[in-house]
Amino acid sequence: MSTFVDPEWVEPGVKAPDFTLVSDSGEKVKLSSLRGKPVVLYFYPKDDTPGCTKQACAFRDDSKKLARHGAVVLGVSPDDVERHQRFKAKYKLDFPLLCDTDHAVATKYGAWRTKTLYGKKSVGIQRSTFVIGADGAVAKTWKRVQVEGHAAQVLAALGELG
Fold first, then answer.
1. Using one digit for the tens of pLDDT, what is the confidence trace for 96-110?
2. Percent over 90 (pLDDT), the chain
3. How far apart are alpha carbons 46 and 9 in whole angstroms?
4. Which one of 16, 40, 52, 97 is the catalytic residue?
5. What CATH code would you report for 37-161?
6. pTM of the full structure
7. Which of 44, 33, 119, 100 is nearest to 72 (CA)?
8. Is 99 known to be catalytic?
9. How far apart are CA 143 and CA 80, in angstroms?
């Protein structure tokens, strides 16, 4: 039996690993095609759960502020297109939700890892966010996001990009 080894986190200053994922609309989104704009790439465990809903709605509620920075928000979870569509419609989310059903992209970024809850270990998405500058380099990371106040932290980081 093989033991899961947590991947390395993507750190600020490195080029963001490129990927192509299917969105809630069924279209493919390629990260490198967004060069020239800052990207808020956030990984979350599951659609329509309390923390994930609160986080998604905070980004939705700050969409005008995010737009002032020219930022594109991308939410990534292992959920499929249909589940993303229901979640997006239910909460009127105004940004793409990307399907990482095999968790390959989450692994590239270090977000697919061992977690411990109430003493029980499991492997899954560690709630995390990466702000990627217009040049394609990672500018800021949050590795274990606390949902409360996180959107404001992201806005502050975008403001520092200039």
1. 999 999 999 999 999
2. 91
3. 20
4. 52
5. 3.40.30.10
6. 0.95
7. 33
8. no
9. 24
| 21 touches 100 (CB < 8 A) | yes
Beta carbons within 10 angstroms of residue 34's beta carbon? 18
Q: What is the pLDDT of residues 42-77, one digit of tens each?
A: 999 999 999 999 999 999 999 999 999 999 999 999
| Token pair listed for 21 | 């994922």
How far apart CA 104 and CA 111 sit, in angstroms, is: 10
Q: Delimit the domains of the chain by residue range.
A: 37-161
Please give, one letter per residue, the 3-state secondary structure of 33-73: HHCCCCEEEEECCCCCCHHHHHHHHHHHHCHHHHHHCCCEE
Three-class SS state of 86: helix
Q: Which two tokens stand for residue 52?
A: 């994930």
| Amino acid, res. 52 | C
**pLDDT at res. 2:** 55
Task: Quote the pLDDT of residue 4.
Answer: 84
Strand locations in 3-145 (E): 20-23, 28-30, 39-43, 72-77, 97-99, 112-117, 120-125, 128-132, 138-142
